[in-house]
Write a structure and sequence with these properties.
- The protein has about 325 residues and is mainly alpha-helical.
- The chain has 14 helices and 5 strands.
- The chain has helices spanning about 15-30, 40-45, 50-70, 85-95, 100-105, 105-115, 125, 130-135, 150-170, 215-220, 240-250, 255-260, 265-295, 295-325, and strands at about 5-10, 35-40, 75-80, 145, 175-180.
- A 3-stranded parallel sheet has the order 1-2-3. A two-stranded parallel ribbon has the order 4-5.
- Helix 3 crosses helix 13 and helix 8 (about 130-135) packs across helix 9 (about 150-170).
- The radius of gyration is 21 Å and the shape is globular.
- The model has no long low-confidence stretch (mean pLDDT about 95).
- It binds tryptophanyl-5'AMP.
- Tryptophanyl-5'AMP binds near residues 7, 18 and 22.
- Tryptophanyl-5'AMP binds next to strand 1, helix 1 and helix 8.
Length: about 325
């Protein structure tokens, strides 16, 4: 089976449905045909300030949501990044192969650092993409399923792998991003030209996986649409309605065309009610299962420990090869 790697940052209260639609849903499907490894990337999370207690809790909550959304820890490897020290160890080596200008061109870094100002921007944030490259390369992953916003980071990973291979000999598999066209980017409900994101300016634009059903329904009801009243997919002139159609289609497994036909001539009220039902049907069981898993943190921690053992076995072997190739003296 081809190897697959992907990860997500721990989120304090809940993941948002962009994470589910852009990533988790694909993960769940692909874990059957791939040797899949999924990580909760807590080392990445601390590139912006975190409250220690909340981070620990968020890491568990995120792992619980992976499982509740359908990641099977028997079938896939599920672990926490900080449990496998090879990640920052390889990242250090990759840092020494990465140009300053090359790292400074990463759009996520440019956006985040512009928002924070230079003094609050850390070296850790700057080095975020090389840690991500280490995540992927340690496992020899061929496939990296992500949303559109991670494409550039996977490109950098390919460049670094190629560079290492040509300098030190064939070592790394060159990975490929797998980005589902239709769901590459889920947009904010209030500002449907912005990506849905946990750092959105208003909570009303974001549906959280663990939102109570009534709350999600209310957010959908107040989602930005337009004044022409027609349920029709047209991203350029109807971004709000098109985003809702995408969400509807992906969650219900129906085509956009069949949804357009169902709501032809019926206006946005009915359409939003229909979408709310689909959202609640999808996420109510995930929410219930997450809360159940969080009731037994010891069991969850055992699952993550088993995952870390499996991951470390692969990662340590890759790191040993890398250390040898770059010329580190083996410890006697
Ligand atoms: P993160 O935690 O920001 O997001 C996790 C995944 O969710 C996708 N995503 C979206 N997809 C569609 N629409 C949206 N609005 C949306 N918001 C988020 C992201 O594209 C991502 O796939 N750097 C990564 C985590 C990471 C990683 C890795 C991923 C660390 N190491 C190695 C793959 C391989 C990140 O911050 O994702």
């Amino acid at each position: 089976k081809p190897r697959l790697f992907s990860g997500m940052q721990p989120s304090a209260d809940s993941l948002q449905i962009g994470n589910y639609i852009g990533a988790l849903l694909q993960w769940k499907q692909m874990q059957v045909s791939h040797d899949a490894i999924f990580c909760v990337v807590d080392l990445h999370a601390i590139t912006v300030a975190q409250d220690p207690r909340e981070l620990r809790e968020a890491t568990r909550r995120t792992a619980a949501q992976y499982i509740a959304a359908g990641i099977d820890p028997e079938l896939s490897t599920l672990f926490v990044q900080s449990h496998v020290p090879a990640h920052p160890q390889l990242a250090w080596v990759l840092n020494t192969l990465t140009g300053y200008g090359e790292a400074a061109r990463m759009t996520q870094f440019k956006d985040k650092s512009a928002r924070q100002g230079t003094d609050a921007t850390t070296l850790g944030l700057f080095a975020y993409p090389t840690l991500m490259a280490a995540d992927i390369l340690l496992y020899g992953a061929q496939t990296v399923p992500v949303g559109e916003d991670q494409r550039q980071h996977v490109e950098l990973t390919r460049d670094l792998a190629t560079r290492f291979n040509s300098r030190f000999g064939e070592t790394f598999v060159i990975p490929e991003a797998q980005i589902q066209k239709a769901t590459a980017k889920v947009y904010d409900l209030q500002e449907p030209t912005n990506k849905m994101s946990k750092s959105a300016s208003t909570d009303k634009g974001v549906i959280w996986l663990l939102d109570e059903p009534a709350k999600s329904a209310k957010k959908i009801k107040s989602a930005t649409t337009d004044s022409d009243g027609e349920v029709r997919f047209d991203v350029a002139s109807k971004p709000g309605v098109s985003n809702l159609l995408t969400i509807y289609s992906v969650l219900s497994g129906r085509t956009v065309a069949s949804i357009e036909t169902e709501y032809a001539g019926r206006g946005y009220g009915d359409f939003k009610t229909g979408l709310s039902e689909v959202v609640v049907e999808t996420f109510a069981p995930i929410r219930a299962r997450t809360l159940e898993l969080l009731d037994d943190p010891a069991e969850l921690d055992r699952i993550l420990a088993r995952g870390a053992d499996k991951a470390a076995a692969i990662a340590d072997a890759t790191l040993a090869t890398v250390y040898d190739r770059v010329g580190f003296l083996p410890r006697a």
